[in-house]
Amino acid sequence: SRSLSLAVIPGDGIGPEVVAQGLKVLTAVLPQDVKLETTEFDLGAGRWHRTGETLPDADLEALKGHDAILLGAIGDPSVPSGVLERGLLLKLRFAFDHYVNLRPSKLFPNTATPLAGRPEIDFVVVREGTEGPYTGNGGSLRTGTPAEVATEVSLNTAYGVERVVRDAYARADSRPRKKLTLVHKNNVLVYAGHLWKNIFDRVGREYPQVTTDYLHVDAATIFFVTQPDRFDVIVTDNLFGDILTDLAAAVTGGIGLAASANINPDRTFPSMFEPVHGSAPDIAGQGKADPTATVLSVALLLRHLGFDAEAARIEEAVAADLAGRDGTAASARTTDEIGDALAVRVAS
Amino acid sequence: SRSLSLAVIPGDGIGPEVVAQGLKVLTAVLPQDVKLETTEFDLGAGRWHRTGETLPDADLEALKGHDAILLGAIGDPSVPSGVLERGLLLKLRFAFDHYVNLRPSKLFPNTATPLAGRPEIDFVVVREGTEGPYTGNGGSLRTGTPAEVATEVSLNTAYGVERVVRDAYARADSRPRKKLTLVHKNNVLVYAGHLWKNIFDRVGREYPQVTTDYLHVDAATIFFVTQPDRFDVIVTDNLFGDILTDLAAAVTGGIGLAASANINPDRTFPSMFEPVHGSAPDIAGQGKADPTATVLSVALLLRHLGFDAEAARIEEAVAADLAGRDGTAASARTTDEIGDALAVRVAS
Ligand SMILES: CC(C)[C@H](C(=O)O)[C@@H](O)C(=O)O
Ligand SMILES: CC(C)[C@H](C(=O)O)[C@@H](O)C(=O)O
After folding, report:
1. Inter-chain contact A191–B158, Cβ cutoff 8 Å?
2. Ligand nearest B275 Cα, by number?
3. Does B190 touch chain A (CB under 8 A)?
4. β-strands A149-157, B233-236 pairing
5. HEC profile of B205-232
């Protein structure tokens, strides 16, 4: 019999609620012969308040032993901005070399979009996850004085760019439309921009069947709202990917539906799966959170581990559930009820 | 009699066409006793191809003698990415210390927006113009090899942040809603982010009547499409401002209507006014470009120089012209015809 050892980080706010539904659906969809073992990790605002720890070495070590990590949400207004983001979430992504931050965006029928005319939207953003402006490189001098200088350094390496660009080409090649768009700002950020563009062009010569395109990040935001159907696969840096995927979520039914995977394709470390949304402390504990983004993240997890049929069942269940909603249905059902409905669908 | 000495940089692509309309409307609206003197500067792709120059010292010196600069658009695919942007456009913004990059966004009645339900949109972005990731700081090592490392350094100073934050508070204070939103990413870019947030909070104590708000840039893009009416004045850094203002333009009738002002509030150097759109080489010379963004930039120019009534006349003329358009009218009229119509309106 097979086994799946899953590290679970419920985290803060609505994190525990949505993770519970993700696990419910995972349990319902897994083949009988797969033994699911979960280990919960107490990480986030609560732990930090109690112990001052964000992600101690012992936890990092223990996380390593798992096949994958499911994370709910991290962050609370009571913790100074940056402490948990840098000390926990980004630390995980960097320590486990999650260089492919995968964020699919699909406008399901019958879901709300702020865009008039309901364009077809079905693209995936491959966001670099271990470099760029996210490296924590920088500092401040004469902090808090009128003479303060603060820097942020975006670090980009051929090593880091090439591996994520290769991943993106492979993904584009596996999709029917075979189109890959690089998003950067190479007319201003010329050093990083040219590195990205040169590698993008060079690797592209190995994929003559993939249509390529380059857009500045500012122009890309325009197309996200005016012509989102022009996108198939997008590859971009850590910061641009952060911005674009929130916008993508907004135009495809909102952040309540946006799933993400932090993947280490080399499988040296466990990959991590999390909804794009945050901890939403204002609605925590009220059963109001939509667990769909977490459930879709579980589908990405299953696909990463080779359970393709199970991943597809979850995605079909979500599509069917969304098709049955009207504008108000999501709020009419509790977090638990949506999880139950999805669990029933994947099991049947 | 008064005089207005204007430096004109038509630039590339549709630049000359739209600038011609801007000047036409400017001439029509200026009081009789104001003598308008224009000096055209041959800068852009053509000049670079002929001489290899982007912005020589002599031109910079000559530009300094003017009350303001009107710029059409810069850029052509025949010029390597970054050459004209860094060597001309950004060089001007930096040399003339245009630290307030002002970009109003208003959804006029009857103009096309990709957003369903036509929300009320009337906000202005105060984008920092002389710091951040735009300083050209950075470099690349072992360029073009598999061992390449490329950096981009975002430089932020208390000096630079405080002056633009003060400008934004003053603008918010002068508007009916008196609301100011800071956009940054201070949970990741902690050094620059905390500098911005601390100064924003400190200066805010001098403006108790101004309501303040902070958003991460990724969340801000969501609100731009789901709740744009929550914004009044936004202050943000150079790169985030670049991204957000293209998105803002997209949701308020498109880049053909988005005006911008690169202001040196200290008036040590001439301020520069330009449409947000680029040179659009694909439609250049065909009379297809909408000159409205340039005409609205002329209104910002007039207001900067104290011609408030004339600025308002232009804005009313544009509103009236837009109200008379249907979805297809813009394309049915040539660049010249739209300019003529606006000139007639402001003169009457
Ligand atoms: C919470 C934050 C550090 C994170 C990021 O910026 O990557 C989030 O916005 C995301 O997109 O996963
Ligand atoms: C052309 C480019 C350098 C410029 C910028 O990034 O500032 C443009 O996008 C803008 O917004 O004015």
Report:
1. no
2. 2
3. yes
4. unpaired
5. CCCCCCEEEEEEHHHHHHHHHHCHHHCC
| Banded model confidence at residue B143, pLDDT cuts 50, 70, 90 | very high
**What are the C-alpha distances in Å from A168 to residues A110, A161, A229, B267?**
29, 11, 18, 48
* Residues in Cβ contact with B345 at an 8 Å cutoff, skipping those fewer than 6 apart: B316, B317, B320, B321
Q: Give the number of beta-carbon pairs within 8 Å between A and B.
A: 217
What DSSP element (H or E) covers A72?
strand A68-73
Annotated active-site residue A246? The verdict is: yes
Interface test with A, best of B162, B189, B216 (most A CBs within 10 A): B189
Question: Look-up: residue for tokens 């456009």?
Answer: B89
Amino acid at B336: D
Per-residue confidence band for B330, with pLDDT thresholds at 50, 70 and 90:
low
Structure confidence by residue, pLDDT tens digits, B173-217 = 999 999 999 999 999 999 999 999 999 999 999 999 999 999 999
- List of chain A residues whose C-beta atoms are within 8 Å of the C-beta of residue B154: 133, 138, 151-154
pLDDT tens figures, A49-71: 999 999 999 999 999 999 999 99
Task: Please state which CATH class domain A1-99+259-348 belongs to.
Answer: alpha beta
Question: For ligand 1, is residue B218 a contact (CB within 6 Å)?
Answer: yes
Contact B247 A247 (CB under 8 A): yes
- Dist. CA A335 → ligand 2 center (Å): 43
Q: Does B201 sit in the ligand 1 pocket, CB within 6 Å?
A: no
Pick B1-102+256-348's CATH classification: 3.50.50.60, 3.20.20.70, 3.40.190.10, 3.40.718.10.
3.40.718.10
- Architecture of the domain defined by B113-252: 3-Layer(aba) Sandwich (3.40)
CATH code 3.40.718.10 region(s) in chain A: 1-99+259-348, 113-252
B113–A115 C-beta distance less than 8 A: no
B156 touches chain A (CB under 8 A): yes
